[in-house]
């Protein structure tokens, strides 16, 4: 008798609990779907914000992770490819290497940045096999900076110019150019979009700096000095730090 009564109580309890669960679910359901649509809405909003913030992000990307930023410094030309020949017969490849080595040395003091040189000596890197962009792409570098000096038939032509190709590189090019143009003191020739393969084939923000005209005798004389190269290197590092928000 007692057992049967217990059984009935148990069944009643089960029904009550089951009923309560169903009732709770029915109440919870609208708020669940509401939560889903709210989070979808938030996604839409953050996507919209991202679009709005995109130009800013190219100027100063997200806060540094634990991993250091990989910055590739690319001294233009090298080996059999001498680059421009200066007014006095100096080679662009030597100027670009000298400045690049100084940049890399300065970056050793920036713990958030890991510098990588496409070459640290006078060697030839093939443009046919895309050695320079491949190096940066395989490294999954965060930035690519190619260092050059300019040449022109008219020896009076002077100035500092910076190139970029992909739209997401404009922020980097603009910031670095501002620092470098200030350091050289040459005529500011601005930032220009140009289809150079090192800029086109790199997958990260990339800029190509034409520091000055080696074909201008007065500019060349200045460009070959240690002081000038050091201050340009410092300007490049300042630009990198500003762009990375360091
Ligand atoms: Zn060059």
Task: Walk me through the topology.
Layout: H1 2-59, E1 69-75, H2 92-107, E2 113-117, H3 131-139, E3 143-150, E4 160-164, H4 170-184, E5 188-193, H5 197-200, E6 206-213, H6 217-223, H7 226-244
Parallel strand pairs: 1-2, 1-3, 3-6, 4-5
Antiparallel strand pairs: 4-6
Helix pairs in contact: 1-4, 2-7, 4-7
The structure holds zinc ion.
The site of zinc ion has 5 residues, from loops.
Give a structural overview.
This protein has 246 residues and is of the alpha/beta class. It is 52% helix and 16% strand. The chain has seven helices and six strands, in the order αβαβαββαβαβαα. The chain binds zinc ion. Zinc ion (ZN) is lined by residues 76-77, 83, 92, 148.
Summed up:
The protein has 246 residues and is α/β, with parallel strands linked by helices. It is built from 7 helices and 6 strands; from the N terminus they run αβαβαββαβαβαα.
Structural class of the helices, strands and pairings?
alpha/beta
The radius of gyration is 30 Å
Shape: elongated
Reading the helices and strands in chain order gives: HEHEHEEHEHEHH
Give unreliable regions as ranges.
27-41
């Amino acid at each position: 008798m007692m057992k049967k009564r217990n059984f009935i109580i148990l069944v009643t309890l089960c029904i009550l609990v089951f009923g309560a669960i169903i009732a709770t679910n029915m109440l919870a359901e609208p708020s669940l779907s509401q939560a889903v649509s709210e989070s979808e809405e938030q996604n839409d909003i953050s996507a919209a914000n991202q679009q709005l913030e995109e130009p800013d992000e190219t100027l100063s990307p997200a806060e540094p992770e634990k991993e250091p930023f990989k910055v590739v410094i690319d001294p233009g030309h090298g080996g059999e490819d001498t680059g421009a020949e200066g007014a006095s017969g100096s080679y662009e490849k030597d100027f670009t290497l000298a400045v690049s080595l100084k940049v890399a040395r300065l970056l050793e003091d920036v713990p958030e940045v890991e510098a990588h040189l496409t070459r640290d000596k006078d060697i030839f890197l093939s443009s046919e096999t895309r050695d320079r962009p491949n190096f940066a792409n395989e490294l999954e570098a965060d930035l690519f900076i190619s260092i050059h000096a300019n040449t022109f038939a008219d020896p009076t032509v002077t100035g500092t110019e910076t190139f970029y190709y992909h739209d997401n590189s404009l922020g980097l090019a603009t910031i670095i150019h501002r620092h470098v143009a200030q350091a050289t003191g040459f005529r500011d020739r601005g930032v220009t979009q140009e289809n150079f393969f090192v800029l086109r084939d790199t997958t990260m923000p990339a800029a190509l700096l034409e520091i000055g005209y080696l074909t201008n005798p007065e500019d060349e004389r200045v460009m070959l000095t240690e002081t000038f190269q050091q201050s340009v290197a410092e300007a490049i590092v300042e630009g990198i730090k500003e762009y990375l928000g360091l």
